[in-house]
Design brief:
globular, 24% helix, 478 residues
Protein backbone atom coordinates (compact mmCIF):
# COMPACT_ATOMS: atom_id res chain seq x y z
CA UNK A 1 0.00 0.00 0.00
CA UNK A 2 1.03 3.58 -0.54
CA UNK A 3 1.58 5.48 2.69
CA UNK A 4 -1.60 7.13 3.98
CA UNK A 5 -3.41 6.34 0.76
CA UNK A 6 -2.25 9.04 -1.71
CA UNK A 7 -4.13 8.63 -4.96
CA UNK A 8 -2.39 8.73 -8.32
CA UNK A 9 -3.87 11.33 -10.60
CA UNK A 10 -4.16 10.62 -14.30
CA UNK A 11 -2.75 14.10 -14.93
CA UNK A 12 0.83 14.92 -13.95
CA UNK A 13 0.00 18.54 -13.20
CA UNK A 14 -2.07 17.43 -10.19
CA UNK A 15 -0.27 16.53 -6.96
CA UNK A 16 -0.57 12.74 -6.54
CA UNK A 17 0.65 12.40 -2.96
CA UNK A 18 -2.07 14.51 -1.32
CA UNK A 19 -5.81 14.11 -1.07
CA UNK A 20 -6.63 11.45 1.51
CA UNK A 21 -3.53 11.66 3.69
CA UNK A 22 -4.79 12.53 7.17
CA UNK A 23 -1.31 13.10 8.58
CA UNK A 24 -0.45 15.56 5.84
CA UNK A 25 -3.69 17.39 5.17
CA UNK A 26 -5.14 18.21 8.59
CA UNK A 27 -3.37 19.64 11.61
CA UNK A 28 -4.95 20.48 14.97
CA UNK A 29 -3.64 23.65 16.59
CA UNK A 30 -5.13 25.47 19.60
CA UNK A 31 -8.18 23.21 19.40
CA UNK A 32 -9.00 24.27 15.84
CA UNK A 33 -8.72 22.10 12.78
CA UNK A 34 -6.85 23.84 9.98
CA UNK A 35 -7.30 22.29 6.55
CA UNK A 36 -4.47 22.96 4.10
CA UNK A 37 -4.98 23.16 0.38
CA UNK A 38 -2.10 21.18 -1.09
CA UNK A 39 -2.66 21.35 -4.86
CA UNK A 40 0.10 22.77 -7.04
CA UNK A 41 -1.86 23.42 -10.22
CA UNK A 42 -1.72 27.18 -9.71
CA UNK A 43 1.14 29.42 -8.70
CA UNK A 44 0.94 30.58 -5.09
CA UNK A 45 0.50 34.27 -4.43
CA UNK A 46 3.72 36.23 -4.47
CA UNK A 47 4.55 38.33 -1.46
CA UNK A 48 4.22 42.08 -1.74
CA UNK A 49 6.56 43.99 -3.99
CA UNK A 50 9.37 45.83 -2.26
CA UNK A 51 12.56 45.08 -0.45
CA UNK A 52 11.68 45.12 3.26
CA UNK A 53 10.13 42.16 5.05
CA UNK A 54 8.61 42.12 8.53
CA UNK A 55 8.94 38.35 8.83
CA UNK A 56 11.30 35.76 7.41
CA UNK A 57 10.76 32.01 7.21
CA UNK A 58 14.03 30.40 6.17
CA UNK A 59 13.82 26.71 5.23
CA UNK A 60 16.90 24.50 5.08
CA UNK A 61 16.58 21.23 3.19
CA UNK A 62 19.64 19.50 4.60
CA UNK A 63 21.61 17.76 1.86
CA UNK A 64 19.31 18.95 -0.93
CA UNK A 65 20.75 19.30 -4.39
CA UNK A 66 19.14 18.92 -7.80
CA UNK A 67 19.54 15.14 -7.75
CA UNK A 68 17.98 14.68 -4.32
CA UNK A 69 15.07 16.93 -5.34
CA UNK A 70 14.58 15.06 -8.60
CA UNK A 71 14.49 11.67 -6.87
CA UNK A 72 11.75 12.86 -4.51
CA UNK A 73 9.87 14.75 -7.22
CA UNK A 74 9.84 11.74 -9.54
CA UNK A 75 8.52 9.50 -6.80
CA UNK A 76 5.95 11.86 -5.33
CA UNK A 77 4.78 14.08 -8.16
CA UNK A 78 5.82 12.36 -11.36
CA UNK A 79 8.53 13.29 -13.83
CA UNK A 80 6.66 16.45 -14.86
CA UNK A 81 5.68 17.53 -11.33
CA UNK A 82 6.85 20.48 -9.23
CA UNK A 83 7.27 21.08 -5.54
CA UNK A 84 5.58 24.23 -4.34
CA UNK A 85 8.88 26.05 -3.79
CA UNK A 86 9.89 25.24 -7.37
CA UNK A 87 7.10 27.60 -8.48
CA UNK A 88 8.68 30.55 -6.63
CA UNK A 89 9.47 33.58 -8.75
CA UNK A 90 13.06 33.98 -7.60
CA UNK A 91 15.52 31.09 -7.96
CA UNK A 92 19.29 30.71 -7.96
CA UNK A 93 22.12 28.24 -7.63
CA UNK A 94 24.47 28.72 -4.69
CA UNK A 95 28.16 27.82 -4.62
CA UNK A 96 29.02 25.93 -1.42
CA UNK A 97 32.32 27.37 -0.22
CA UNK A 98 34.41 25.86 2.57
CA UNK A 99 38.01 26.41 3.70
CA UNK A 100 40.72 24.47 5.52
CA UNK A 101 40.88 24.95 9.27
CA UNK A 102 44.68 25.05 9.26
CA UNK A 103 44.83 27.56 6.40
CA UNK A 104 41.59 29.47 5.73
CA UNK A 105 43.01 30.82 2.47
CA UNK A 106 42.86 27.32 0.96
CA UNK A 107 39.47 26.02 -0.23
CA UNK A 108 37.87 22.69 0.61
CA UNK A 109 35.55 21.50 -2.13
CA UNK A 110 33.02 19.57 -0.03
CA UNK A 111 31.29 21.12 2.96
CA UNK A 112 29.16 19.86 5.83
CA UNK A 113 26.11 21.12 7.68
CA UNK A 114 28.22 23.12 10.11
CA UNK A 115 30.16 25.06 7.48
CA UNK A 116 27.14 25.37 5.21
CA UNK A 117 24.89 26.39 8.08
CA UNK A 118 27.42 29.00 9.22
CA UNK A 119 27.59 30.43 5.70
CA UNK A 120 23.80 30.82 5.60
CA UNK A 121 23.30 31.91 9.21
CA UNK A 122 26.31 34.21 9.57
CA UNK A 123 27.62 34.97 6.06
CA UNK A 124 31.06 33.56 6.85
CA UNK A 125 32.94 30.90 4.89
CA UNK A 126 34.40 28.61 7.51
CA UNK A 127 35.84 25.12 7.91
CA UNK A 128 33.90 21.90 8.30
CA UNK A 129 32.61 21.29 11.80
CA UNK A 130 32.64 24.91 12.99
CA UNK A 131 29.44 26.40 14.44
CA UNK A 132 29.15 30.17 13.79
CA UNK A 133 32.88 30.66 14.34
CA UNK A 134 35.70 31.58 11.99
CA UNK A 135 38.18 29.05 10.65
CA UNK A 136 41.61 29.27 12.20
CA UNK A 137 40.78 31.81 14.93
CA UNK A 138 37.55 30.47 16.44
CA UNK A 139 36.13 34.00 16.58
CA UNK A 140 32.36 34.01 17.07
CA UNK A 141 30.29 35.67 14.35
CA UNK A 142 26.77 37.10 14.75
CA UNK A 143 23.91 35.19 13.16
CA UNK A 144 20.69 36.23 11.46
CA UNK A 145 18.67 34.96 14.40
CA UNK A 146 20.76 36.92 16.89
CA UNK A 147 20.55 40.09 14.80
CA UNK A 148 16.79 39.69 14.44
CA UNK A 149 16.41 39.23 18.20
CA UNK A 150 18.55 42.30 18.77
CA UNK A 151 16.19 44.27 16.54
CA UNK A 152 13.23 43.24 18.69
CA UNK A 153 11.90 40.44 16.52
CA UNK A 154 10.72 37.12 17.91
CA UNK A 155 12.70 34.07 16.92
CA UNK A 156 12.25 30.36 16.49
CA UNK A 157 13.93 27.13 15.37
CA UNK A 158 12.07 24.08 14.04
CA UNK A 159 13.87 20.92 12.93
CA UNK A 160 13.50 17.17 12.53
CA UNK A 161 17.02 16.66 13.89
CA UNK A 162 18.20 17.26 17.42
CA UNK A 163 18.01 21.00 18.01
CA UNK A 164 21.69 20.71 18.99
CA UNK A 165 22.60 19.36 15.54
CA UNK A 166 24.81 21.36 13.23
CA UNK A 167 22.25 23.28 11.14
CA UNK A 168 20.02 24.62 13.95
CA UNK A 169 23.07 25.20 16.15
CA UNK A 170 24.67 27.56 13.61
CA UNK A 171 21.81 30.04 14.09
CA UNK A 172 22.06 30.13 17.90
CA UNK A 173 25.34 28.74 19.24
CA UNK A 174 29.07 29.44 18.82
CA UNK A 175 31.50 26.56 19.26
CA UNK A 176 34.54 25.01 17.65
CA UNK A 177 33.11 21.57 16.84
CA UNK A 178 29.62 20.48 15.84
CA UNK A 179 29.68 17.27 17.89
CA UNK A 180 29.96 19.13 21.21
CA UNK A 181 26.19 18.88 21.60
CA UNK A 182 25.92 18.26 25.35
CA UNK A 183 28.20 18.66 28.40
CA UNK A 184 29.40 15.06 28.09
CA UNK A 185 30.59 15.69 24.53
CA UNK A 186 33.13 18.39 25.27
CA UNK A 187 36.29 16.43 25.98
CA UNK A 188 38.51 14.88 23.28
CA UNK A 189 37.94 11.37 21.94
CA UNK A 190 40.43 9.18 20.05
CA UNK A 191 39.01 10.44 16.73
CA UNK A 192 37.79 13.97 17.53
CA UNK A 193 39.50 16.84 19.39
CA UNK A 194 36.07 18.13 20.52
CA UNK A 195 35.83 21.40 22.45
CA UNK A 196 37.79 21.59 25.72
CA UNK A 197 38.59 25.24 24.96
CA UNK A 198 34.84 25.99 24.99
CA UNK A 199 34.25 24.61 28.49
CA UNK A 200 32.90 27.24 30.86
CA UNK A 201 35.80 26.46 33.18
CA UNK A 202 38.09 27.62 30.40
CA UNK A 203 36.13 30.79 29.72
CA UNK A 204 34.01 29.30 26.94
CA UNK A 205 30.24 29.28 26.41
CA UNK A 206 29.74 25.58 27.15
CA UNK A 207 28.16 22.93 24.95
CA UNK A 208 25.52 23.62 22.31
CA UNK A 209 22.72 22.41 24.60
CA UNK A 210 23.93 24.68 27.39
CA UNK A 211 23.94 27.65 25.02
CA UNK A 212 20.46 26.89 23.70
CA UNK A 213 19.08 26.51 27.22
CA UNK A 214 19.79 30.17 27.99
CA UNK A 215 19.50 31.55 24.45
CA UNK A 216 16.12 33.24 24.84
CA UNK A 217 14.97 31.90 21.46
CA UNK A 218 11.18 31.95 21.70
CA UNK A 219 10.59 28.43 20.46
CA UNK A 220 12.94 25.52 19.87
CA UNK A 221 11.21 22.46 18.41
CA UNK A 222 12.89 19.20 17.41
CA UNK A 223 14.73 16.30 18.98
CA UNK A 224 17.71 16.14 21.32
CA UNK A 225 16.37 15.37 24.79
CA UNK A 226 19.44 13.25 25.61
CA UNK A 227 21.75 16.24 25.14
CA UNK A 228 19.78 18.30 27.69
CA UNK A 229 19.30 15.48 30.18
CA UNK A 230 22.92 15.81 31.33
CA UNK A 231 24.66 17.62 34.18
CA UNK A 232 26.72 20.65 33.27
CA UNK A 233 30.14 21.41 34.73
CA UNK A 234 28.50 22.57 37.96
CA UNK A 235 26.50 19.33 38.23
CA UNK A 236 23.18 20.97 37.33
CA UNK A 237 20.98 19.40 34.64
CA UNK A 238 20.78 21.40 31.42
CA UNK A 239 17.02 20.78 31.51
CA UNK A 240 16.90 22.56 34.86
CA UNK A 241 18.95 25.43 33.42
CA UNK A 242 16.41 25.73 30.60
CA UNK A 243 13.47 25.78 33.02
CA UNK A 244 15.22 28.40 35.16
CA UNK A 245 15.70 30.49 32.00
CA UNK A 246 11.94 30.45 31.39
CA UNK A 247 11.45 27.49 29.05
CA UNK A 248 8.44 25.20 29.19
CA UNK A 249 9.60 21.75 28.11
CA UNK A 250 7.22 19.64 26.01
CA UNK A 251 7.83 16.07 24.84
CA UNK A 252 5.11 15.11 22.30
CA UNK A 253 2.43 16.41 19.95
CA UNK A 254 -0.20 16.48 22.69
CA UNK A 255 2.08 18.55 24.91
CA UNK A 256 2.71 20.96 22.06
CA UNK A 257 -1.01 21.48 21.53
CA UNK A 258 -1.50 22.09 25.25
CA UNK A 259 1.32 24.66 25.23
CA UNK A 260 -0.34 26.77 22.55
CA UNK A 261 -1.72 29.31 25.01
CA UNK A 262 1.25 29.31 27.39
CA UNK A 263 3.27 32.55 27.23
CA UNK A 264 6.52 30.79 28.19
CA UNK A 265 9.39 30.16 25.85
CA UNK A 266 8.93 26.66 24.46
CA UNK A 267 11.56 23.93 24.32
CA UNK A 268 10.05 21.01 22.40
CA UNK A 269 12.16 17.85 22.68
CA UNK A 270 10.19 15.16 20.83
CA UNK A 271 12.90 12.50 20.74
CA UNK A 272 16.25 11.63 22.27
CA UNK A 273 18.18 12.73 19.19
CA UNK A 274 17.14 12.93 15.52
CA UNK A 275 13.39 12.39 15.12
CA UNK A 276 12.04 9.27 13.43
CA UNK A 277 11.32 9.73 9.72
CA UNK A 278 7.80 9.54 8.34
CA UNK A 279 8.52 7.02 5.55
CA UNK A 280 10.57 3.84 5.19
CA UNK A 281 11.00 1.27 2.44
CA UNK A 282 8.38 -1.43 2.05
CA UNK A 283 9.51 -4.67 3.75
CA UNK A 284 12.72 -3.01 4.87
CA UNK A 285 13.59 -1.87 1.34
CA UNK A 286 16.75 0.21 1.02
CA UNK A 287 19.77 0.48 -1.25
CA UNK A 288 21.97 -2.63 -1.21
CA UNK A 289 25.04 -3.89 -3.10
CA UNK A 290 24.27 -5.59 -6.40
CA UNK A 291 24.31 -9.40 -6.29
CA UNK A 292 25.41 -11.70 -9.14
CA UNK A 293 24.32 -15.21 -10.04
CA UNK A 294 26.79 -18.11 -9.96
CA UNK A 295 27.14 -17.56 -13.69
CA UNK A 296 28.03 -13.88 -13.19
CA UNK A 297 24.72 -12.36 -14.28
CA UNK A 298 23.34 -9.29 -12.52
CA UNK A 299 20.35 -9.99 -10.26
CA UNK A 300 17.82 -7.18 -10.55
CA UNK A 301 17.11 -5.60 -7.13
CA UNK A 302 13.46 -6.13 -6.19
CA UNK A 303 11.45 -2.91 -6.62
CA UNK A 304 9.69 -1.51 -3.57
CA UNK A 305 7.50 1.38 -2.55
CA UNK A 306 7.57 3.75 0.42
CA UNK A 307 5.30 3.14 3.41
CA UNK A 308 4.62 4.81 6.74
CA UNK A 309 7.27 4.27 9.39
CA UNK A 310 5.74 2.17 12.21
CA UNK A 311 8.25 3.76 14.59
CA UNK A 312 7.15 7.31 13.85
CA UNK A 313 5.61 7.60 17.31
CA UNK A 314 3.81 10.57 18.82
CA UNK A 315 6.08 13.32 17.66
CA UNK A 316 4.60 16.16 15.59
CA UNK A 317 5.33 16.29 11.87
CA UNK A 318 7.47 19.04 10.41
CA UNK A 319 4.32 20.47 8.87
CA UNK A 320 2.56 20.53 12.25
CA UNK A 321 5.56 22.11 14.02
CA UNK A 322 5.81 24.79 11.32
CA UNK A 323 2.11 25.58 11.56
CA UNK A 324 2.31 25.70 15.36
CA UNK A 325 5.29 28.05 15.21
CA UNK A 326 3.70 30.39 12.67
CA UNK A 327 0.44 30.46 14.61
CA UNK A 328 2.35 31.43 17.74
CA UNK A 329 4.42 34.09 15.97
CA UNK A 330 1.62 35.49 13.80
CA UNK A 331 0.50 38.27 16.12
CA UNK A 332 4.00 39.60 16.81
CA UNK A 333 3.89 43.35 15.98
CA UNK A 334 7.64 43.61 15.41
CA UNK A 335 7.86 40.54 13.15
CA UNK A 336 9.90 37.39 13.48
CA UNK A 337 12.69 35.20 12.13
CA UNK A 338 11.94 31.47 11.92
CA UNK A 339 14.32 28.79 10.68
CA UNK A 340 12.79 25.44 9.68
CA UNK A 341 15.00 22.46 8.80
CA UNK A 342 14.10 19.21 7.10
CA UNK A 343 17.14 17.40 8.44
CA UNK A 344 16.82 13.77 7.41
CA UNK A 345 17.09 14.26 3.68
CA UNK A 346 20.77 14.29 4.56
CA UNK A 347 20.68 11.66 7.28
CA UNK A 348 18.73 9.13 5.23
CA UNK A 349 20.95 9.72 2.19
CA UNK A 350 23.95 8.95 4.41
CA UNK A 351 22.30 5.63 5.26
CA UNK A 352 21.25 4.80 1.68
CA UNK A 353 17.54 4.90 2.54
CA UNK A 354 15.78 6.53 -0.41
CA UNK A 355 12.30 6.30 1.12
CA UNK A 356 13.48 8.08 4.25
CA UNK A 357 14.88 10.98 2.26
CA UNK A 358 11.87 11.10 -0.09
CA UNK A 359 9.50 11.25 2.86
CA UNK A 360 11.59 13.99 4.43
CA UNK A 361 11.54 15.99 1.17
CA UNK A 362 7.78 15.60 1.17
CA UNK A 363 7.78 16.95 4.74
CA UNK A 364 9.78 19.96 3.54
CA UNK A 365 7.29 20.61 0.74
CA UNK A 366 4.34 20.38 3.14
CA UNK A 367 6.01 22.76 5.61
CA UNK A 368 6.71 25.27 2.84
CA UNK A 369 3.03 25.09 1.84
CA UNK A 370 2.12 26.12 5.38
CA UNK A 371 4.43 29.13 5.05
CA UNK A 372 2.95 30.02 1.64
CA UNK A 373 -0.55 30.00 3.15
CA UNK A 374 0.76 32.25 5.94
CA UNK A 375 2.38 34.55 3.40
CA UNK A 376 -0.90 34.93 1.52
CA UNK A 377 -2.38 36.39 4.73
CA UNK A 378 0.81 38.30 5.59
CA UNK A 379 2.47 39.42 2.32
CA UNK A 380 5.21 41.22 4.26
CA UNK A 381 6.74 37.76 4.81
CA UNK A 382 9.84 36.57 2.93
CA UNK A 383 10.16 32.82 2.35
CA UNK A 384 13.57 31.41 1.41
CA UNK A 385 14.31 27.72 0.78
CA UNK A 386 18.01 26.83 0.82
CA UNK A 387 20.40 23.90 1.26
CA UNK A 388 23.65 23.48 3.12
CA UNK A 389 25.43 20.99 0.80
CA UNK A 390 24.90 18.33 -1.84
CA UNK A 391 24.56 14.61 -1.27
CA UNK A 392 25.20 11.15 -2.65
CA UNK A 393 22.08 9.68 -4.26
CA UNK A 394 21.84 9.60 -8.05
CA UNK A 395 19.23 8.38 -10.49
CA UNK A 396 20.87 5.86 -12.83
CA UNK A 397 19.60 3.76 -15.74
CA UNK A 398 18.52 0.20 -15.02
CA UNK A 399 19.63 -1.93 -16.71
CA UNK A 400 22.84 -0.22 -17.72
CA UNK A 401 22.89 1.58 -21.05
CA UNK A 402 25.92 -0.53 -21.94
CA UNK A 403 24.58 -4.04 -21.32
CA UNK A 404 24.32 -4.80 -25.03
CA UNK A 405 27.80 -3.47 -25.75
CA UNK A 406 29.86 -5.39 -23.20
CA UNK A 407 30.10 -9.05 -22.24
CA UNK A 408 31.02 -8.47 -18.59
CA UNK A 409 28.29 -7.49 -16.08
CA UNK A 410 27.38 -3.80 -16.10
CA UNK A 411 26.05 -2.31 -12.86
CA UNK A 412 26.70 0.68 -10.57
CA UNK A 413 29.28 0.47 -7.77
CA UNK A 414 28.12 0.85 -4.21
CA UNK A 415 24.45 0.27 -3.43
CA UNK A 416 21.29 0.46 -5.54
CA UNK A 417 17.56 0.67 -4.79
CA UNK A 418 14.76 0.36 -7.33
CA UNK A 419 11.60 2.27 -6.44
CA UNK A 420 8.13 1.83 -7.89
CA UNK A 421 6.98 5.45 -8.14
CA UNK A 422 3.46 6.74 -7.56
CA UNK A 423 3.00 7.29 -11.31
CA UNK A 424 3.83 3.63 -11.95
CA UNK A 425 7.42 3.86 -13.16
CA UNK A 426 10.57 2.18 -11.89
CA UNK A 427 13.41 4.43 -10.73
CA UNK A 428 16.90 3.17 -9.86
CA UNK A 429 18.74 5.17 -7.19
CA UNK A 430 22.46 4.60 -6.69
CA UNK A 431 24.69 5.42 -3.71
CA UNK A 432 28.38 5.02 -4.44
CA UNK A 433 30.45 7.52 -2.45
CA UNK A 434 31.84 5.31 0.34
CA UNK A 435 32.54 1.61 0.80
CA UNK A 436 32.54 0.75 4.50
CA UNK A 437 30.58 3.44 6.34
CA UNK A 438 28.07 6.21 5.59
CA UNK A 439 27.57 7.80 2.18
CA UNK A 440 29.41 11.08 1.69
CA UNK A 441 28.36 14.65 0.97
CA UNK A 442 29.17 15.94 -2.51
CA UNK A 443 30.63 19.24 -3.64
CA UNK A 444 27.94 20.42 -6.04
CA UNK A 445 26.20 23.78 -6.04
CA UNK A 446 22.77 23.80 -4.37
CA UNK A 447 19.43 25.38 -5.29
CA UNK A 448 17.82 28.43 -3.68
CA UNK A 449 14.14 29.44 -3.96
CA UNK A 450 12.60 32.66 -2.63
CA UNK A 451 9.42 34.70 -2.77
CA UNK A 452 8.29 37.81 -0.98
CA UNK A 453 9.80 41.20 -0.18
CA UNK A 454 13.57 41.22 -0.54
CA UNK A 455 13.68 38.09 -2.71
CA UNK A 456 14.84 39.80 -5.93
CA UNK A 457 18.61 39.26 -5.35
CA UNK A 458 18.04 35.49 -5.47
CA UNK A 459 18.96 34.95 -9.11
CA UNK A 460 21.71 33.46 -11.23
CA UNK A 461 24.76 32.00 -9.50
CA UNK A 462 25.44 33.28 -5.99
CA UNK A 463 27.56 32.23 -3.05
CA UNK A 464 25.89 30.40 -0.20
CA UNK A 465 27.20 33.05 2.18
CA UNK A 466 25.37 35.75 0.16
CA UNK A 467 22.12 34.45 1.63
CA UNK A 468 23.02 36.04 4.96
CA UNK A 469 23.20 39.48 3.36
CA UNK A 470 20.02 38.94 1.33
CA UNK A 471 17.98 38.09 4.43
CA UNK A 472 19.68 40.71 6.57
CA UNK A 473 18.84 43.46 4.06
CA UNK A 474 15.28 42.17 3.68
CA UNK A 475 14.77 42.52 7.44
CA UNK A 476 16.56 45.91 7.49
CA UNK A 477 18.99 44.60 10.11
CA UNK A 478 21.99 46.55 8.82
Amino acid sequence: MYPRGPGLSSRWNVNPYTGTMPRASIVTVCGAVVALALGVETRPAIGQAGTTARNVVLFVGDGVDDHQLTIARNYLLGADGMFVFETFEHQAAAKVLTVLEEDPHVPEYVGDSASGGTAIAAGVVTSRGRIATRAGTGESVPTLLELAAGAGKRTGIVTTSSITDATPATFVAHIGRRFCEGPRDMLPTPTDPRCPQDLKANGGPGSIAEQLAVSGVGLLLGGGYEHFDQPDEAGVSVLRRAREAGYLIVRDAAGLREAAGDPSQILGLFGDDTLAVEWVGENGGRARPIQLTVGGQVIDPAPFRCVDNPRFGSRPTLEAMTLWALTRLESTPTGFFLMVESASIDKQAHAGNPCGQIGETRALDQAVRVAVAFQERHPETLIVVVSDHGHSAQIVPWPSLFVARRSEPQYPPGKVARLRTLEGGLMAVSYGTNTHYLEEHTGTQVPVFAQGPGAAPVRGLIRQSDLFGIVRRALALE
